[in-house]
Amino acid sequence: MMPIVRWTLWQRRWSLLWWCLGVACLIILTISLYPAFHDQNALNQQLSQLPQAAKSLFSDTGDFFSPQGYLSSQVFYLTLPLLLSVLTIGMGSSLIAREEDDGTLELLLSRSISRGRLLVAKAFSGLIILIIVGAVVVISSVLTAKFAHINIPLLNIAVASLLTINLALLFGSIAMTVTMFGRSARIASIGFTALIAFGGYIVASLAGVARWLVWPAKFSPYHYFSPGDALYGHFGWQNPAGMLAASLILMFIAWLAFRRRDLRG
Amino acid sequence: MTSLPAIETFGLTKRYAKSRHLALNNLNLAVRSGEIYGFLGPNGAGKTTTIRLLMNFIQPTTGHATILNQDVVRQSIDIHGHIGYLPGEIALYSKMTGNQLFDYLAGLQPVKSTQYLRGLISRFQPDTKKKINELSKGNRQKLGIIQAFMHQPDVLILDEPTSGLDPLMQEVFYELVRETKARGGTIFVSSHNLTEVQKMCDRVGFVRGGKLIAEQDINDLSQSTIQTYDIAFAGEAPISKLKQLNHIKVISNTPHHVTVTVRGELKNLLSLLGRCDVVSIEHRDINLEDEFLKFYKGDKER
Known about the structure:
The complex is a heterodimer.
Chain A: H1 2-11, H2 13-32, H3 34-37, H4 41-48, H5 52-58, H6 67-76, H7 79-92, H8 97-102, H9 104-109, H10 115-147, H11 154-179, H12 185-206, H13 214-217, H14 227-232, H15 238-259
Chain B: E1 5-14, E2 24-32, E3 36-40, H1 47-54, E4 62-67, E5 70-71, H2 76-80, E6 83-86, H3 98-108, H4 114-124, H5 137-149, E7 155-159, H6 167-182, E8 186-191, H7 194-200, E9 203-208, E10 211-217, H8 218-224, E11 226-233, H9 239-244, E12 248-254, E13 257-263, H10 267-273, E14 278-284, H11 288-301
Parallel strand pairs in B: 3-8, 3-9, 6-7, 7-8
Antiparallel strand pairs in B: 1-2, 1-4, 4-5, 9-10, 11-13, 11-14, 12-13
């Protein structure tokens, strides 16, 4: 299993480096701009007059200029989940599917490797990449917040980062599971997971202002994602544990689908 | 003495999703341990489907198969430790070098002897330091052959193994096959090329339209197969002498050129040509299916 993990990480080393640099730059730039924004009373008043629907699209806290509101609206509620979801959906839809498209999957499975072990090795490789990028997220968020004198406990910032990583992991798991169902599934997995991720974000964000969206919002992972609460220190384990369990269940479904299906020839 | 089957299929049938036709229809075959079995047939006949079923890359619609008495679906992991596999169109990691590929595969399935692997590399002489996407088809095929043999498997499943190899390398490959047989290995090889199969195999099966339509010992087949030769002479072609030879038929001729068909041994023809001033001899490719079916028809009639 380890040779597969090592080779997968080696293949993706440059893209991993760029992801780490990109995410770190985004977080450092965004958080370090906070001191320039938080005293802008006129801007704050204008934004507070925005319709609730518009505000809820960008923030789960409803405010934009408190330290928690700023971090949630500018980093943890939209931008970072969006970026990390692009990373995990891309990995989920390609870690095994690309080998199948290229024909190298047969080379691997002609050896004494079960499809289950291959799936675990590939999922583990993806998880390592997400953990590395996630570590960059946590470190750069915590350090920049400290230097920008944002008055939030650093633990809360770290928890908000972990919640975001957990959400992205769920989207990656959905993408990987869909690809395991066979022909043309790679494109389908990107489309389907993007729909769940971004459609779910809009539905969950607007559920507070449109009552008819309350029920469908319960099917969106975003409904259970509240980085703003974590930044305020109101944090419960149930929702993130549920998301993690959902990722594991999806991996089990992926294995069931993959273990007996015909490989593309 | 009859050896135990190394590969057996029992009513193996495959229908692909959304297809009305059976890609493989009730295949029953038994390849004996230590045997080299040629699996012949035109494109789309079911050769690759059979191989992919044996490798558990696709699932049978009905029927089952065993390799070394183990079920290819339920015990595929155990079986794969004893199998070397070469697909028809080898797909390798384009960004790896040959050396990296062998290290990677040896990490997944340890080789019994690194000396054996080095021996294979020195015999086929692929460029193992260049990235695979910079190699020619022939060099990639060499890497494919080496990766199939490198862990000294008991059973080899090879799909068109000499595709892309030059004649010298083909001979190296045939030699490797003979050595593998000598140490008791079983080889299941699919091919379009009857001449190649005649060189390598002990027995052949012919598949068409997803059905195994005939199986034959290679010696019987060789004696019945008709070969066609175009022969050019410096002087006058010895038409009358050629017509007198047994099992030889003159198809067409000009004063300095003759086309003959030969059934069975070439001894008489070569003996006559040895006494003539021959400029060139060309062997015409034979239509595999026609020849095989001709043989099979004759066999039935007998």
